Sequence to fold (225 residues):
Amino acid sequence: MILSQLNNHHIVLIILWLLYFSIHSLFASIRFKQFILNSYPGFMPWYRLSFNIIAVLLIIPPLLVMARHPGDIVWQWSGNWSYLANGLALLAVAGFIWSLRSYDSTEFLGTRQLNEGRVDVTEKESFKLSVLHRYVRHPWYSLALVLIWTRDMNVAFLISAIMLSLYFILGSRLEENKLTAFHGDQYRLYQKHVAALIPLPWRILSKQKAEEIVSLVEKKESNND
Fold:
């Protein structure tokens, strides 16, 4: 039924999302960062900031297509279900804002790398496990999924929701490959105790266990220095 409602604008939307995902993944990869470091070392302090700016600019075209060519309504939350959906969305926004205190915003934005003139390809922020990280390994992806799937759906939004969800799953795995390479067995231990995107009651990390894992990582990093 959904396929029958696709038009040329929705095909363009799919292509734009695929381009966004491809470029975003390429720029986030260690191999590409290493290429830039080898070819243009003077640009590296600007890399993270440029990455964020490009990510914002590239997401504008698919959002414009979604707004201008939404397609038919697929489903809408109504009655008590709408209260539940909106309540979950508000909790997700609150969780995202609350979680910001666990991150180094200057590192995330790229201003710290620029101010320090850093030319390395790896992130320098230390390994931390916030409260949300005790429930899922990728809390921002999980919160984003809640926000996406608690909205009313037209054809364009549903296409985007499906593609974004698949990308979050793939992106989380790619990110974990890097984390495993950086932190080794300590991160694998964390993976065994906590689910990736959907909280599972039998895979919730206690505060004590989280502190033990962070301690193991810090010990390994101090031994490598």
Summary: The chain has one domain: 3-224.
